[in-house]
Design goal:
This is Lactose ABC transporter permease. The chain has helices at residues 2-41, 61-69, 71-102, 109-122, 125-133, 141-144, 147-155, 161-169, 171-176, 179-189, 194-202, 207-218, 220-235, 241-246, 251-287; strands at 44-49, 52-57. By secondary structure, it is mainly alpha-helical.
Length: 288
């Protein structure tokens, strides 16, 4: 009996290894060497000579320069970081509400699902850049209704004033970046059995109570998944000013900046995950 269990466990591990093998193989072939090479260059001054590339060891000089002597890095990072903090809850809430709506038995709901996902396909990369450069993607109501003055009065000299204005001006683009999240939430909503909602209605629960007691707790894993995806997506946004800084001609400096930015994203992800887990645990304890 024990031998059978061991064989079943080995078979499951083998199946899992086979599923992950294509990704692992692709990572080793296409990503492992470039990542290692960029890490190597971050400690060297790289010069392109007629006979090849010359590497002069620089130690942590570039890292020290970026972290302690580069005001441009922080001038670009902090405002965009504030924009990301504002964007993430808006995208998650909007995606969740749209997913719940699209899960209803509506006429043409498959068409509406396609409409919400199409911008993810069309507005990527160069196309999205051209779209914004032509002045599209802005609601324009800040100018039409003179809301900029009200924001200046309300926020004053706060460092959040400019990120709020930028977010409102690009609000359409933010919502367009919700397509993948909507699909994930929609798939998660369909995993909740209808019997749970029928039991709640029999017990006299209203829609608001059903949402907070059944839908939201059941969607927690999908909220967590979308949270991680949205954080990564926002930090690789096409209009991210840090990515423009990385694209300089100094390979050693750019490599060091890329690794610092990567560590910042990892730290931010860990903080978000920690906060989400703590909130989830408190909610579960309160329900008990």
């Amino acid at each position: 009996m024990k031998k059978r269990r061991m064989n079943a466990k080995v078979a499951r591990n083998l199946e899992g290894s086979l599923f992950i093998a294509p990704w692992l193989l692709g990572f080793l072939i296409f990503l492992a060497f470039p990542l290692g090479f960029s890490f190597y260059m971050s400690f060297h001054k790289v010069k392109i000579l007629p006979g090849g590339m010359q590497y002069d060891f620089n130690g942590v000089g570039y890292y020290r320069e970026i972290l302690f002597n580069s005001s441009e890095f922080y001038d670009q990072l902090i405002p965009y970081f504030q924009e990301v903090v504002l964007m993430i809850p808006i995208i998650l809430i909007f995606s969740l509400m749209i997913a719940i709506l699209l899960n209803q038995k509506l006429h043409g709901r498959f068409l509406f699902r396609a409409i919400f996902f199409l911008p993810v396909i069309f507005t990527t990369g160069y196309l999205l850049t051209e779209f914004v450069n032509q002045g599209e993607g802005s609601l324009g109501f800040l100018e039409k209704f003179a809301l900029g003055g009200y924001l200046d009065t309300f926020l004053g000299d706060s460092s959040w004033a400019q990120p709020v204005k930028t977010l409102l001006n690009r609000f359409v683009l933010v919502l367009w970046y919700s397509g993948v999240q909507i699909l994930i939430f929609l798939a998660g909503r369909q995993t909740i059995p209808n019997s749970a909602y029928e039991s709640a209605r029999i017990d006299g629960a209203n829609p608001w109570e059903v949402f907070w007691k059944i839908t939201l707790p059941a969607m927690s894993p999908f909220i967590f998944l979308n949270l991680i995806y949205t954080v990564v997506d926002m930090f690789t946004f096409p209009f991210n000013p840090i990515i423009d800084l990385i694209g300089t001609g100094n390979y050693g400096y750019s490599s060091a900046l890329a690794w610092i930015y990567f560590l910042i994203i990892v730290i931010f992800l860990l903080i978000v995950m920690f906060i989400f887990v703590r909130i989830t645990k408190k909610q579960n304890a309160a329900r008990r």
